[in-house]
Design a protein that fits this description.
InterPro entries: BphY/WalK/GraS-like, HATPase_C_sf, HATPase_dom, His_kinase_dom, HisK_dim/P_dom, Sig_transdc_His_kin-like_C. With about 325 residues, the protein is of the alpha+beta class. The chain is built from 10 helices and 7 strands.
């Protein structure tokens, strides 16, 4: 700030130095003017000028120093009060700008919430004809057509479900209900929902759940498992998906292993990034890149850690590490 202050006052400093040099020059060429007293006066003037700059420095830089450290674009409370006309003009302009930005941000948030509510309402409305469509598909006699139709129905259902949870994820904290939850009904419900797809791809499940219960939210855990199972089924063919649980050091681990195509090592650090699909099958237009991202977001809110190990051509293992009971104190406030 000292350097900026001196650069700001550079023209005044140069003017002062030029005036002092002019006085010394006149005294030097005019024999009637004693040079030494003039030199003494110039020296005293120089000292006074230095003292003036030092005294004025904190007062003239206080406002701009607070403005430089200001990191909240909407709160001017941290900015020092103006002490000069120019500082007052700056403060007034900033105040008008922040008020305008506040109004624009408020209107934007209202519009965003309205769009979110409209989309959620639309998704709920679509679910009714979608349920009716499933009942109609189940009544078909042609098993081949029935299987194909059910697969397409499932794709639509999963995309709608993903969109619904994407809109809900921002206020997931308001939707959590932590309780002791049985893993088996959640897992078998998700497997059953993928039945038609699994039959089409000749995929089976090997489920072993020695650790039968976890402390979590039923609905959001179901969503996480749904995303992992959907990925496992999508990238596997004619193989089993192994689901097993265990307890280690008082912590429940849930392991979901498939024997599909696997994940390229260079893709592993990015699979939970929003919108990331794959560098291997980058032309796959059906992939949204949102499933694992949303699963990770939901897992973070449930204090669940997701680890993934994968080898191309051999398959992928997702492991969910559930929190211990005392780790939920910060989440539940109990």
């Amino acid at each position: 700030m000292i350097g900026k202050y001196l650069r700001e006052r550079l023209s005044w400093i140069l003017l002062f130095l030029c005036l002092q040099l002019l006085i010394l020059f006149v005294a030097a060429i005019d024999a009637t003017i004693p040079f030494m007293p003039i030199l003494y006066i110039v020296f005293l003037s120089f000292l006074i000028f230095i003292a003036f700059l030092v005294i004025r420095y904190p007062r003239e830089t206080r406002f701009y120093a607070s403005l430089e450290s200001w990191d909240d674009m909407y709160d001017l409370a941290s900015v020092a009060d103006p002490e000069s006309p120019f500082e007052t003009i700056t403060t007034e302009v900033l105040t008008r700008q922040t008020e305008r930005y506040k109004k624009e941000a408020s209107l934007y948030m209202i519009e965003l919430e309205q769009e979110k509510d409209d989309l959620l309402s639309w998704i709920h409305e679509v679910k009714t004809p979608l349920t009716t469509l499933r009942l109609m598909i189940e009544r078909l006699d042609n098993e081949t057509l029935k299987s194909q139709m059910m697969y397409e129905w499932l794709r639509i259902h999963l995309l709608l479900d993903q969109q619904l949870h994407q809109k809900r994820i921002s206020f997931i904290k308001n939707d959590l209900f932590i309780e002791q939850t049985a893993l088996e009904p959640i897992i078998y419900t998700e497997i059953k929902s993928l039945k038609s797809w699994c039959l089409q791809k000749n995929i089976g499940f090997d489920v072993s759940l020695p650790a039968a219960e976890v402390l979590t939210d039923v609905k959001w855990l179901g969503f996480i498992i749904r995303q992992l199972l959907t990925n496992a089924v999508k990238y596997s063919d004619a193989s089993d998906i192994v689901i097993e649980s265990r307890v280690k050091d008082g912590q429940v681990h849930l392991r979901i292993q498939d024997f599909g195509r696997g994940i390229d090592p260079k893709d592993l650090p990015r699979i939970f990034d929003k919108g990331f699909t794959s560098t291997t099958l980058h032309k796959d237009s059906a992939a949204t890149g949102m499933g694992l991202y949303l699963a990770q977001k939901a897992a973070d809110s449930l204090l669940i850690r997701i680890d993934v190990v994968s080898k191309p051509g051999e398959g992928t293992v997702f492991t969910l590490y559930f929190p211990k009971k005392n780790e939920f104190l910060s989440l539940t406030g109990m």
